[in-house]
TrEMBL record:
EC number: 2.4.2.8
Organism listed in the record: Fertoeibacter niger
One Pfam family linked to the record: Pribosyltran
GO cellular component, one term: cytosol
Reactions mediated catalytically: IMP + diphosphate = hypoxanthine + 5-phospho-alpha-D-ribose 1-diphosphate; GMP + diphosphate = guanine + 5-phospho-alpha-D-ribose 1-diphosphate
Gene Ontology annotations of biological process type: GMP salvage; guanine salvage; hypoxanthine metabolic process; IMP salvage; purine ribonucleoside salvage
Protein name per its UniProtKB record: Hypoxanthine phosphoribosyltransferase
Pathways per UniProt: Purine metabolism; IMP biosynthesis via salvage pathway; IMP from hypoxanthine: step 1/1
Record-annotated membrane-spanning stretches: none
Length: 181
């Protein structure tokens, strides 16, 4: 299917993201102060940029692990079916866990992943999401910490894709189609 032409309008600058990441990291560090080890779980692919910046601001003993979950594929709407394509490498039973997600939209991805992880008996499990689109929620779920609440726009950059492109933009932008449709 050929891609409709679009441009990307800047929405959140790299500088604003960096400032917010620092503040989130301070809150998370305070919350988990004294932990013997925090397992930070990034949900691939979208969280790869955010988790890289976030863990470097955490003043805690940290292990980094990843799980790959996909529900959008190359489309703009959720399939509501979350495919787990890669599981964690480590065990999380009895551990403190921080799930890191780029965006919570319908909530299906986060809810599915939390359900799977909770069944493994972590000591504590919390979620940090960079972006939240509350108006699109279909599952009643929210992150413990959220970077920015955003309106119902299709966003890209800082790890987030549109049909696998634009993940490498250093800022968050919104997709605006330039054809008639
Ligand atoms: C996107 C995004 C979140 C999820 C949010 O992932 O990275 O993981 O969708 O949407 P939801 O709240 O409606 O479930 P996607 O399925 O596009 O995979 P990706 O991270 O590999 O891009
Ligand atoms: Mn994702
Ligand atoms: Mg995606």
């Amino acid at each position: 299917m050929p891609q409709r032409p679009y441009v990307i309008d800047r929405m959140i600058t790299a500088k604003a993201i960096a400032a917010r990441v620092e503040a989130l990291a301070r809150d998370i560090t305070a919350h988990f102060a004294g932990t013997d080890k925090l397992v930070v779980v990034g949900l691939l692919r979208g969280s790869f940029v955010f988790i890289a910046d976030l863990v470097r601001e955490l003043d805690l003993p940290v292990e980094v692990d990843f799980m790959e979950a996909s529900s959008y594929g190359d489309t703009m709407t959720s399939s509501r079916e979350v495919r787990i394509l890669k599981d964690l490498r480590g065990e999380i039973a009895g551990r403190d866990v921080l799930v890191v997600e780029d965006i919570v939209d319908t909530g299906f991805t986060l809810s599915h992943v939390l359900h799977l992880l909770r069944a493994r008996g972590p000591a504590r499990i919390e979620v940090c999401a960079l972006l939240d689109k509350p108006t699109r929620r279909e599952v009643d779920i929210r992150a413990t910490w959220t970077g920015f609440e955003i309106p119902d726009e299709f966003v890209v950059g800082y790890g987030i894709d549109f049909a696998q492109r634009n993940r490498n933009l250093p800022y968050i932008g919104k997709v605006r189609f330039t054809d008639a449709g």
